[in-house]
Specification:
The complex is a heterodimer of chains A (270) and B (749).
Chain A: H1 25-35, E1 39-42, H2 49-60, E2 64-68, H3 75-79, E3 80-85, E4 88-93, H4 95-102, E5 105-109, H5 116-121, H6 123-126, E6 131-134, E7 139-142, E8 148-153, H7 166-169, E9 173-176, H8 182-192, H9 197-211, H10 224-235, H11 240-252, H12 256-269
Chain B: H1 3-14, H2 21-28, H3 36-44, H4 46-49, H5 54-70, H6 76-100, H7 102-110, E1 116-117, H8 118-133, E2 139-142, E3 146-147, E4 152-155, E5 157-158, H9 164-183, H10 202-207, H11 213-235, H12 237-243, H13 253-256, H14 262-272, H15 282-296, H16 302-314, H17 335-365, H18 376-396, H19 399-403, H20 410-413, H21 420-423, H22 441-447, E6 463-469, E7 474-484, H23 494-501, H24 503-517, E8 520-526, E9 531-532, H25 534-545, E10 555-560, E11 565-572, H26 580-596, E12 602-610, E13 616-622, H27 630-638, H28 647-658, E14 665-672, H29 684-700, E15 703-709, H30 714-722, E16 727-729, H31 736-747
Parallel strand pairs in B: 2-4, 7-13, 11-12, 11-14, 14-15, 15-16
Antiparallel strand pairs in B: 1-5, 3-4, 6-7, 8-10, 9-10, 12-13
Helix pairs in contact in B: 1-2, 2-5, 5-6, 8-9, 9-11, 9-12, 11-12, 11-14, 11-15, 11-16, 14-15, 15-16, 17-18, 24-26, 24-31, 26-31, 28-29, 29-30
The chains are: A alpha/beta (270), B alpha/beta (749).
Amino acid sequence: MPGRQMRIDEFRVEEEPYYLPLGNELDIADAAYRDGSPLLLKGPTGCGKTRFMQYLAWRLKCPLVTVSCHDDLSTSDLVGRYLIRAGEAVWIDGPLTMAVRAGAICYLDEIVEARKDTTVVIHPLADDRRQLPIEKRGELLTAPPEFMLAVSYNPGYQSVLKDIKASTRQRFVALSFDYPAPEKEMEIVCREGRLEPELARSLVKLAVMTRGLKDSGLAEGASTRLLIQAGKLIGRGIPIKAACRAAISEALTDDRELLAALDEMVSSLF
Amino acid sequence: MDLEQLKEKFYQLVAPSMPNEWDVEDALSPLVDSESACLEEVFSQIPAIWPVSQGLCFAYLSAAGPALCHLALDELSLWVHTLLDRYETGGLRGAQLFMADVERQFARQLRGQGSLRLTEVRSRLQPYVNGLAGRELPLIGAAEAATDSQVIFLPSELGVFAEHGENFLLYKLMVSFQWASLAAGMFTSPPFLTLHRKSAHPLDCFFSEFPQPDNARQLFHLLETGRMLSFLRSELPGLMRATVPLLPRLPLSGDESSKPNLLDFLQRGLLRGEEHTHGHSPLTDRAMALLRQCAVRTEDNSVSLAAVRELMGCLTADEDLAATRPLIFQGTLRLQEMRNLGLKQRMDKELKMMRAQFMSLSAAHQPTEADPSSGENEGQGYDAALIMEMESAWDQLTPFMQSMGQQITINEMLPMTNKPTQECGQTQVVQETGTATEGRAGSALARSPHAGGGKGEEMAEPVVYDEWDHRRKGFRKKWCVVSERELLPVENSFIEQTLKTYRGQIRRLRHQFELLQTGERFVRRQREGVDIDIDALVESRIDLVAGLAPADRLFIRLAKNHRDIAVTFLVDMSNSTSGWVGQSIKEALVLICEALEVLDDRYAIYGFSGMRRLRCEIFPIKRIDERYSKTVRQRISAIGPREYTRMAPAIRHMTELFSQVEAKIRLLIVLSDGKPEDYDDYKGDYAIEDTRHALLEAKAKGIHPFCITIDRQAHEYMAHMYGEVNYIFIDNIQRLPARMSEIYRTLTS
């Protein structure tokens, strides 16, 4: 239904998401929430940033509004816009405004992908003012204590165009994420991919190997998410090597030599 | 074609070089009677070989005729490619051997039979082992498999089996085995040693406890091999399953021996099963039992060490196990090299510590500029105090360091301090041969603006830059003289050849770069455009309803993304870039230029080299607003190895030039093959810190520096200089041309 104002209850995380804490990230995030500080999550792709936010939201019993940023994301997309309904102009809140009003967590995923001007709108919200000006309505919203702003980005992208400005990043409490230690990663893959521990262990070994290939031309190694995907394929009856090829090797690179080297790793491990 | 015509054609291809006429005649005379199609193909390879080595090129011409008896015409370029690889690894001698036997060395491999060469499998196995180890473990050709903990040695050629596939599997097993020996602690020191020599590996000390150390060594290696195989079975089960049919077929030296010894039996038992050894003698049975025990406990080498002790007690004095060759994948133990490497690493670390300690001492003792009256006596007092402090610093070093006898004399270290007389502002006339730490640039500049006189005209007034001295946490004022010199364009077939070799790739790159350029996006709220902007229309309507003045910007326009990017490539032209390195850098430049031509990104290319601080030379190859013309291409051809890598002045000069360029994104890409280093004391931490500072200065001016390096030690200093994500290491120089454009695309999209 076009133009419907989404209800905040739709964003509640009802069931406990699976999340295995890797350090003191939950304590820090908890403390930041109580202090009204915004959160910056950084780390490679597929290492559990989004899952962490879901878990945090569930733990805090807060709705979680997630916005995946892209390079055409405008301020209106975040704040809201007027629409015409039955000859009347109706204001529809954007995800950010909705989260501020309802005291939810607003999570801007991959913030560096958004246009630079959009990040400015979060500035007054991310410091001690905690305010969101809605120009079109002449309204100044002050965020309730339950509201939290969280953003994420991947510092590994070597692009000069995709860096987060100091004026933005210096407003946040930053949590650095990385791939879990092998034992923990195995536990995660085992549970999420519904695999036997031995198979999960080999998949994690494979991931660790691929992460050592940065110098050989692999931009990033296999993420925990890829391992889980491979695990699920295996669970559906796809042969292990084919599943690894489809879910891991081919997802990582197009380079023939690297693909060959990855195949060698897979054939050694399984 | 007669000899004169051939000669003329040859000279055209190698211009501007003018090799001796008799050499050319010698090399070309066997080709006189060849068919023109053959000649065409043979000559087309010359531009690839000539810049690598002229001697090789002559040898190639002599050998090309006979080679074509074994090869099809279209196989010649592959043969030459392999030849160049051989030259890189084995020098001219290696290349000549390769050319002498075309059938065995090349043609058979081409048909997928017989032996497999390391060069053919390296591209596949190198990333494989890097992945296994989680670090760079270069694979290097040698007589036998081995490792010294930093490198894995493998036979350059493997022909144990008839099929390529099986030989490849054996290579893979070798690599995995050598990795396992590092990962599973084959080289861990024994806990108790009765004999202990510092310069020897602890395992060697252990072996020398026995009357026949070689026997102990051989036994230990085999027992550990059993353990490694069982480690591999648990870590890489897939590989070990695949090698099951292979292992029993591996040749053993015991098969040829009329009287197999204990080691022969153990090898047989390990690879072919225990039924081959059972019941031979109580000693063999016991040894087999010990071998089994070693394989069960995979954590460390302690069981093997105990087993060696037991077996050595049972062996008779005349037993010689050295006659048994080690298993092919097992290779040899390079314990001494491993020990030397370990010692060197430790020494470097301690030397660094000592330097740091010395720096803090000298900084504490440095007279201030406000005290110009520091007379001779005070100077002596300073030296005496310094020597005393040095002695106490020496005492604080570990006994290990002292035992190595690495005495660093005060004289050696003094140039690193700032002599009080210099700090007092005396102007000294400096010889061009002075070290980095002597004299002032200004005076020398006045004396000799053309000092050094490199090739090419000086193009503008030399510019003087400061140099950062991390020890005094300040600049050496007006320290380096940077002059721009013209790189004389060279007319040869390099560009043509590169365009030909990479034509497919260039087409692909251009297409990819076009996609970057046409990054289209919709611009909303325009007065005119291709579509109606519904949001704007709605708002306008709302305003109308609300009684406000409606907006008239109601259209969406499709606009191309304006990439306001300017980039400067700074190319290291130091002496070390000779051969393949320089060639690949040049090819990479041609490729990136070809690709960049489809974009509006402005770009400049500069080379740098020089010798000492008074002659830092910059060679403009393409200025930022210059067209990518024939002259530019000829300048790229002219890039060649020159002198040293004093990187920071070049970066400062680029920063200076670049800061005058208006662009939203300014990118400085440095292509280098090693650490910053100059002829004088400009090396080590000093050079790295100065370069780092120059890069920070560039960043402060809004320039993004990025480095592409091929130095294997890059990780030790690059992250410090450029920042963790601002450099990339390329492990295979021949892939640089392809990778560079890819890196540029990633950087700017």
